[in-house]
Specification:
By secondary structure, the protein is an alpha+beta fold. The protein folds into three domains: 188 residues, Alpha-Beta Complex (Aldehyde Oxidoreductase, domain 3), CATH 3.90.1170.50; 334 residues, 2-Layer Sandwich (Aldehyde Oxidoreductase, domain 4), CATH 3.30.365; 132 residues, Aldehyde Oxidoreductase, domain 4. Helix content is 25%, strand content 25%. The chain is built from 17 helices and 29 strands. The chain has a seven-stranded mixed β-sheet with strand order 3-5-1-12-9-10-11, sandwiched between helices. The protein has a five-stranded mixed β-sheet with strand order 7-15-14-13-8. A five-stranded mixed β-sheet has the order 16-17-25-26-29, sandwiched between helices. A hairpin with a 4-residue loop joins strand 27 and strand 28. The radius of gyration is 27 Å and the shape is globular. The protein starts with 13 loop residues before the first helix and ends with a helix. Bound molecules: dioxothiomolybdenum(VI) ion. The site of dioxothiomolybdenum(VI) ion has 9 residues, from loops.
């Protein structure tokens, strides 16, 4: 069947999206809604000394101007106490104080009858500051680096060590000790952060909110505003991308609710594009030192990876880039440290493959360098150091198809035709380079719920309060439910994006298919059992055929079955959660990335001309949406390698290229032939469906493959992303 599990069913929400019928947060038609615009700090550090709102208040249409002068004090203390329990909860600036911690911090909110009046009002707010010199750069502040209290985004430790890394490095026959950097990168999904807040009475709040996690978002609104979580409803049927930016709840979202209460009307607040650069999370600039040692035959004996990243002055987020070094290769002596430097910037946060993307894309340049030092083919070098079990935790991987990924990727790419010498594959004035890298990202899974329901006409409704970032959740969950019930996908409607539905975890860490998928499968199976009970048959014996159920030669109308039960439909709730296997096995998605670049020998102009990614990612639920996820990550790899660079002005403490004209990402003309393929992988340890998650693996290693291809083309090793023309010539 074209629509059964794994098949390339077209997106069930595709038509709604391309015809504009999919209603995104900012487009929700809420009667009587007023518009809010944030005034944000122009300085990066200091104090507000005066705030003149009179001109703004006189502007026709302006309803209110909120600032630290008149905003009600929240139950939580500012600055230190408003952090929630989860590492993803960011500390917010909600007009509670006059201290400025970073450029772009909200200092006032203007609410008006129209967007234009709110924008004009925002322009008229006069803020005077006592500015201090901000510290926003990493390199001059390395001596202030400290060991963070919390570890990585998922609670990983800051440091690890096994064996005796220093002596092993000292005595290694082949070695390397280098510093690599990655720049600030900023998410900027097409849809910016957007919120519409609607109060009903003093303690009931409904928010249309662009969020990756309706349930954690609800918790944050409740906690910060002193409400009961049950009295807050978060709705988000469509999300225009996120990449991690919409994981945490940010100041703008809560300010919309505060403003709505103040003016006694629903309020819509959409973050402006320049306000997306810095105040709402980013991937931190990192400095990564890697030291590696090997025997003459290429056997790694020691690996050391020391990471320093930036965090804000008031909150902590660690870009845990050393994680892959602990587990990717079978190296007996290993040590990693991860440190932070406090800076006068907005708090960095989760961004597609947090920690891992920055880490793998650096480690895999270092491994390419080691392969050259040892005089080995880069794949041969990696196979020599292949980890058959997890060297960090000394336990088995739930599954690992990396060998097959190397083979499949190399085959599709034509790797055997590569000549190893740099600058050896020239075509006229064009230098051609082929590079490869390993890819790895952890498997995450959290407890999730779902509900399934069948109506007398046979239509099946499945609900879970999860999110579709554009990744394909609507489509794959429809397939999972249809598969478990043995019906065509067209018989199933899947609804998501509402805290009125069963609780689901945040869509982050590539965990939606692993978590919600298994909950949906469980709910569909439970519904099947419910139908079987009504039929007096065994669950495996029933077949749903349109509006009839067949069992052991009997055929009954669903309408009769349901009526006999005295109900309007049959339904089942289910919850699925990770089992003990999570502690017994190490669970990762793996892959092999290949890239071809073409460099103009005279001008240094650089283009990626071809990419192949081969992945071992467990059971693939939908070949079309999966390919799109892998490719999306690989395209980001092009941006990571060649373009993305949020450039900080050290005097002003602001990103100077804070728009999509100056912050470069790949456009169609930059994206070549990209092939994403995968190996069949059945992993029953990860979860019943055998799903590993695919949202983030594509960005891991893809930038390194390009960097390595640039070296192969030019003989020039660039260790600072992005690899721009000036660094190549
Ligand atoms: Mo993803 S960066 O874990 O939302």
């Amino acid at each position: 069947m074209q629509d059964s599990l794994g098949k390339p069913l077209v997106r069930v929400d595709g038509r709604a999206k391309v015809t504009g019928r999919a209603v995104y947060t900012a487009e929700q038609d809420v009667p009587n809604a007023a518009y809010a615009v944030m005034v944000t700090s122009s300085i990066a550090r200091g104090r507000i000394v005066s705030l003149d709102t009179r001109a703004a208040e006189r502007q026709p249409g302006v309803l209110a101007v909120l600032s630290s002068r008149n905003t009600p004090r929240l139950p939580q203390k500012p600055r230190s106490a408003n952090q929630g329990d989860r590492p993803g909860d960011r500390k917010l600036q909600l007009l509670q104080e006059d201290t400025v911690y970073y450029a772009g911090q909200p200092v006032a909110v203007v609410v008006a009858e129209s967007l234009e009046a709110a924008q004009e009002g925002a322009r008229l707010v006069e803020v005077r500051y006592a500015a201090q010199t901000p510290s926003v750069e990493l390199e001059p502040s390395l001596s202030r680096a400290y060991k963070p209290a919390q570890g990585g985004a998922h609670g990983e430790t800051t440091d690890d060590a096994r064996g005796a890394v220093d002596s092993a490095l000292a005595s290694a026959e082949v070695k390397l000790d280098r510093v690599y950097t990655t720049p600030f990168q900023v998410h900027n999904p097409m849809e910016p952060h957007a919120t519409i807040a609607i109060w009903s009475g003093p303690d009931r709040l409904t928010v249309y909110d662009a969020t990756q996690g309706p349930f954690p978002d609800r918790e944050r609104f409740a906690m910060l505003l002193g409400l009961k979580p049950d009295n807050v409803r978060v709705i988000c049927p469509y999300l225009g991308g996120g990449f991690g930016s919409k994981g945490p709840t940010w100041s703008s979202q809560v300010l919309a609710a505060i403003a709505a209460k103040q003016v006694g009307r629903p309020v819509k607040l959409v973050v402006e594009r320049p306000q997306m650069f810095g105040p709402v999370g980013m991937r931190s600039h990192t400095r990564q030192r890697i030291a590696a040692g090997a025997r003459r035959d290429g056997t790694l004996v020691a690996l050391r990876h020391d990471v320093t990243a930036q965090t804000s002055s008031f909150d902590e987020f660690l870009e845990s880039a050393a994680m892959p070094t602990r587990m990717l290769y079978a190296v007996p002596n290993e040590a990693t440290t991860q440190r932070l430097v406090r800076s006068d910037i907005g708090t960095p946060s989760f961004m597609r493959a947090p920690g891992w993307a920055a880490g793998v894309n650096v480690l895999e340049i270092a491994m390419d360098e080691m392969a050259y030092e040892a005089g080995m083919d880069p794949i041969e070098f990696r196979l020599k150091n292949y980890a058959d079990q997890d060297p960090e935790k000394s336990r088995a991987f739930s599954s690992k198809s990396l060998r097959e990924c190397y083979r499949l990727g190399a085959d599709r790419f034509g790797w055997s035709r590569r000549s190893p010498e740099p600058r050896s594959m020239r075509q006229g004035d064009t230098l051609i380079g082929w590079g490869m890298a390993s890819a790895v990202y952890p498997v995450h899974r959290s407890k999730s719920g779902a509900r399934a329901q069948i109506a007398p006409d046979g239509s099946i409704l499945v609900e879970s309060g999860t999110i579709d970032l554009g990744t394909g959740t609507y489509t794959v969950m429809t397939q999972v439910a249809a598969d478990a019930l043995g019906v065509p996908a067209s018989q199933v409607t899947f609804r998501l994006g509402d805290t009125a539905y069963a609780e689901a975890p945040i869509s982050a860490g590539s965990q939606t298919a692993t978590s919600v998928g298994n909950a949906v499968a469980a709910a569909a199976k439970a519904l099947r059992a419910e139908i079987a009970r009504a039929m007096n048959a065994a669950p495996d014996a029933i077949q749903i055929r349109g509006d009839r159920v067949i069992a052991a030669g009997r055929s009954e109308r669903l309408a009769d079955l349901i009526a006999r039960r005295g109900q309007r439909f049959l339904e089942a709730d289910s919850e699925a959660q990770p089992g003990p296997e999570q502690q017994q096995f190490s669970m990762y998605v793996f892959g092999a990335q290949f890239a071809e670049v073409r460099v103009d020998a005279a001008l240094g102009q650089l283009r990626v001309s071809r990419m192949t990614g081969a992945f071992g990612a467990g059971k693939i639920l939908n070949a079309r949406t999966a390919r799109s996820q892998f490719m999306g990550g690989m395209v980001w790899g092009i941006g990571f390698a060649l373009y993305e660079d949020a450039h900080m002005d050290p005097r002003l403490g602001r990103f100077v290229n804070h728009d999509l004209a100056e912050y470069h990402i790949p456009v169609n003309a930059d994206v070549p032939e990209i092939e994403a393929v995968w190996v069949d992988e059945a992993d029953t340890h990860v979860n019943p469906l055998g799903v590993k998650g695919i949202g983030e693996i594509g960005i891991c290693g893809s930038a390194a493959a390009i960097a390595n291809a640039v070296f192969h083309a030019t003989g020039k090793r660039i260790r600072d992303y992005p690899i721009t023309l000036d660094k190549v010539i």
